[in-house]
Amino acid sequence: MKHSKYSAVVVGSGIAGLYAAIKLQREVNLPQGLLIVTKSKLIESNSKYAQGGMVCVMPENKLDSTTLHIEDTIKAGAGLTDRKAAEYISQKSAQVVKELQNFGVDFDRDENNKLKFTKEAAHSVNRILHAGGDATGFCIENALVKYILTQKEVKIYEQTLAVELLKDKNNINRGIITYNYDENEYEIIETPAVIIATGGIGQIYRYTTNPDITTGDGIALAYRAGAKVRDMEFVQFHPTAFSLGENGTMFLISEAVRGEGAKLTDKFGHTFMEKYDERLELAPRDIVTRAIYNELKL
């Protein structure tokens, strides 16, 4: 069995994992280097398929403010939102956008070279940035991948599954065991820090817009190691998708479509969201999803 040491290991190569890796690499001393582990290719992740855009409060958007964004978030959360988390995300959003731009993300601009903002569900003003028209996830993922590949001190393991977290007798993390599919080999990796950013559980459902790799194994990895797992009842369902065939393959229809005025109708061409929420097609996703489900039962 192979053996190695790293200052930190990031499991997962979506936007969360890559961004965490970049922040670590830039802001923390890592004398033994940084390792990114991904069970597929570096570019393959759920993030890659995200379309609509990125919520942010930018200073040039005069109709918006962090106060307004926070209140929109809390209202959409139906009283379950962690206010401190909402405040932190809103207040840091402009800084993150600037960082992403520095990493090469080219957000869409208008004819005057100003950032274009659109509107999505639960937002009271236009505050959604997008890139590549409607390929925001891919554009951000691609830019972060290109950046991380230029960093010589960052090692990347592709086609590698994180198997088990290693702890000492005091229940402190000391490393991780991985398995490489191509080499059919396990490896013990000593590290004081492991970040798990492995995405969701979309593949537990028969029909999903998530890629095949979203199987929830990162959650299982953490749970087996004794990590606290919370809020597992909150699984986000995107309200609209296009069925590509009988094998269950689904193509996500971006929320930005409704943000630009698209209407939801039943099989007879009748709109129905007016029966469920005054915000119509731009009600929060959970409301729109339940409305569609109710209509399908009629």
Provide a short characterization of the protein structure.
The protein is an alpha/beta fold and 298 residues long. Helix content is 28%, strand content 18%.
Detailed description of the structure:
This protein is α/β, with parallel strands linked by helices and 298 residues long. The chain folds into three domains: 2-47 and 145-224, FAD/NAD(P)-binding domain, CATH 3.50.50.60; 54-129, no CATH class; 241-297, Succinate dehydrogenase/fumarate reductase flavoprotein, catalytic domain (Flavocytochrome C3, Chain A, domain 1), CATH 3.90.700.10. It has helices spanning 15-27, 66-76, 83-102, 136-148, 217-224, 255-259, 285-297; strands at residues 2-5, 8-11, 34-37, 54-55, 117-118, 128-129, 154-157, 160-167, 173-180, 185-190, 194-196, 241-243, 250-252. A four-stranded mixed beta sheet has the order 1-10-9-8. Strands 7-3-2-11 form a four-stranded parallel beta sheet, with helices on both faces. Strand 12 (241-243) and strand 13 form a beta hairpin. The termini are far apart. The model has no long low-confidence stretch (mean pLDDT 92).
Any idea of the CATH class of the largest domain?
A: Alpha Beta
CATH superfamily of the largest domain: FAD/NAD(P)-binding domain
Strand content: 15-25%
**Level-2 CATH architecture of the largest domain:** 3-Layer(bba) Sandwich
> How many beta-strand elements?
13
Please report the number of helical segments. 7
What is the helical fraction, as a range of percent?
Answer: 25-40%
Give the overall shape. Answer: globular
Q: Domains counted in the coordinates: how many?
A: 3
Please list the strands of the largest sheet in the order they lie side by side: 1-10-9-8
How would you sum up the major sheet? 4 strands, mixed
Distance linking N and C termini: 58 Å
Radius of gyration based on Cα positions: 21 Å
Class computed from helices, strands and strand pairing: alpha/beta
Low-confidence segments, given as residue ranges, are none
Order of helices and strands: EEHEEHHEEHEEEEEHEEHH
Mean pLDDT level = 92
